[in-house]
Amino acid sequence: MQSGYSLMESRKVNAGNGWLWIKQGYWLFKKSPILWVVLTVIGVMGLLSLSTVPVIGEPLATLLFPVLLAGFMLGCRALELGEELELAHLFAGFQHNAPALVTLGGINLVSQYLILGVMKLTGGEALVNIMTSGKPVEDPAILMQAIDGAGFSILLGTILFGVLLMAMQLAPMLVIFGKAAPVPALKASLHAFLRNMIPMTAYGVMMMLLALLASMPMMLGWVILLPVMITSIYAIYRDLFPEQLASTPVQSEAITHDDRTQP
Fold it and tell me: pLDDT tens digit string along 202-234?
């Protein structure tokens, strides 16, 4: 019997796993490409539309994002087990520990406000005001002046937002599959990223290159790349926390123990 601590402990993997996660994500996408595109478009457009609602839109979208991501991850799990991806997976997160997922969104929201506050206190008030105004900057000189005046606050904000992203990335999967509470899930996600910084960096660089390719012509490649980004997140979780899913038989031609080599 595995202890609760061991189930929350991530594996350390090789740099080559960064490319493997993209391959595995593409394999999951190929299992149901049309429906993945439909689900992704609906999900993204829904969040963008919600964020346009005055005052409450953006905070509400941030709160619900982990719930939406959890539904996508449940869809990945279904495909891995030989089941069907369904339109209902778009809302499946509401049926799997939704309060904890919304709590993750709340922590994310509060953390973003705190980071912006720190940036203001360290000399980036003008830049933060532009970022949070929701209006385009008509005079580029004003933006450049704000950036130039921000100085250290930009570096500090980048680091803090990076830490927040690492903590949030795998937390929804740790909640729905690992039954973790929100704060331990955030800690485990952050630790997994820091422990696997090399493959994570390789993954990020390759995704950036693919994003450049997907942007030509007319951003059409994003129709495929965005769903693959989503499915590759599941591949990362599956690779770094295999013990959490070990109790369920896996019928997968792509995500296997043979593929995941230890350093």
Answer: 999 999 999 999 888 778 889 999 999 999 999
| Ranges of each domain in the chain | 4-245
DSSP letter assigned to residue 122: I
In this predicted structure, the answer to whether residue 182 has a pLDDT above a threshold of 60 is: yes
| Residue/partner pairs of 247-250 with CB below 8 Å, 24 or more apart | 248/81, 249/81, 250/80, 250/81
Question: In sequence order, which residues have a C-beta less than 8 Å from that of residue 152 and are 6 or more positions away?
Answer: 122, 123
Do residues 119 and 159 touch, judged by C-beta distance below 8 A? no
Distance (Å, rounded) from C-alpha 14 to C-alpha 5?
23
φ/ψ of residue 180, rounded to 5? -85, 150
Distances, alpha carbon 105 to alpha carbons 39, 59, 122, 171, 214, in Å: 20, 9, 26, 10, 29
Judged by phi (left if over 0) then psi (alpha if -120 to 50, else beta), residue 235 lies in alpha
* pTM of the full structure: 0.86
Structure tokens at 90: 């778009």
Kindly state the helix (H) or strand (E) to which residue 239 belongs, with its residue range. helix 222-240
| Mean pLDDT to the nearest integer, 46-69 | 92
C-alpha 217: how far from chain center:
26
Amino acid identity, residue 99?
Answer: P
* C-alpha distance across the termini of the chain, in Å: 25
In the predicted structure, residue 138 carries a pLDDT above the cut 60: yes
What are the start-end ranges of the H helices in 32-139? 33-51, 57-80, 98-119, 125-133
What is the rounded distance in angstroms from the CA atom of residue 182 to the CA atom of residue 111? 14
Q: Is residue 156 within 8 Å of 118, Cβ to Cβ?
A: yes
Cis peptide before 199 (omega within 30 of 0): no
DSSP of 199-222? HHHHHHHHHHHHHHHHTTTTTTTH
